Amino acid sequence: MSNERGEALNTLLSLCAADALGAPTEFRTPEAVAARFGSTFRAYQPGSVFGFAPGEATDDSQMVVATLQGVAGGDGHAGVLAAFRAWLAAAPPDVGGLTRQALRITFTEPERLDGGALAWARGGFDGAGNGGLMRVAAAWLLGFRGEVLARESAVLTALTHADPRCVLASVFLTAFMEELAFGRPYAAAAEAALVVTERFDARGALIEAGVLGLATQDAHRAFRGREREARAQVRARVRSGLDGLITSQSGFVLDTLEAAVAHARREHWFACVEPAVLRGDDSDTVACVVGALVGARGFPVPAELLPGLRLGHAWPGWEREWPCGAHLPELLGAARARVA
Question: How far is CA 152 from each of CA 159, 237, 243, 299, rounded to the nearest angstrom?
Fold first, then answer.
C-alpha cells in the first residue's frame, strides 16, 4: 500500500471511529453525558438515540462510504447521488432533513444534480446544516488535491447542501486536511486553507458542474448574493476555533466547523476526539469531522477501537456485522483507482 493511500485509510478509519464514539452522546447535554458516562470516554458505549450498537458508525460515516461507493461504481457525481439514494432507500435510522429532501427530488429524475439547490430554495434559503461537511472528507480520501480538491468538495457538498456557508466550509475543511497532511503547523495550515477558500470560485464550480443552472436561477441569485458574507463567516469561525472558542455543537454548519477546529488542535487522537464526544449535542458529527482532521494530521486510530468498528446500517452491498477494518481498504482502493 502506498504511503498516501495508507494515510487515507487511517483517516477514513479515524473519522468512522470518532463518529461511533460520539453516537451514544448525541443530543445529550454535557451534564447528562457526565452523569451517564463519567468524565472520560475512550471506549464504545451503548445508548444511541437511534439504536446504534457500540462501535457502529452513524450516518456521517455511512455517507462518506456511500460517496466512495458511488465513485467506485463510475458515472461521476450522478453515481454518487445514486449511491446516496440506495443508502436512503435502505431506511437508515438517521437522515438529515435537507439531505432527505434533496435526494427525494432526484429519485424521479436521477440525472439531475441540482436537488440540493432546489431543496435549499424550497426551504426559503434557510438551510445551512452540517450534512455536507460531515461527509466531504471523502474528496480528500479519494486523492483529489489543490484546485480539483476544492471543486470536488464544493460539488459534493452542494449535491444536498447548496448554501454558500455549507459549500465554503467544506472547501476550507478539505484544504485544511491537505495542508495538515503536508505537515504544516496547525494554525498555519488553517490560514493557508483560508486563502484557498477566499480565492476559490465556488459559484463558478457549481455552475460548471450543473448544480446551479437554468432550473435553479433563484438559488443561483441567492448564492451570488450571500457568497461574500459566507466567506467572512467561515473565516471568523475558523479563527475563533483556532483560539479555542466553541459557540455550540449544534447541527449548524458553522458551529460544527468552529468546534471541530477547536477540538482538533490538541496533540493526540483521544485528546482531540474525546472532548467532542463529552460535549454532546451533535457530538457524532463534530467528532467525525475532528476524526477526519486528526487522521490527516497523521494521528493513528487507537488500536483498541479498530476491532469493534463497523458501519451502523445495512444498504446494498453492506451488512451491519462487517468490520470496517476488513472492508474499507478494498473500497477505498477501488474508489481511488477510479479517479487516478
Answer: 11, 22, 29, 25
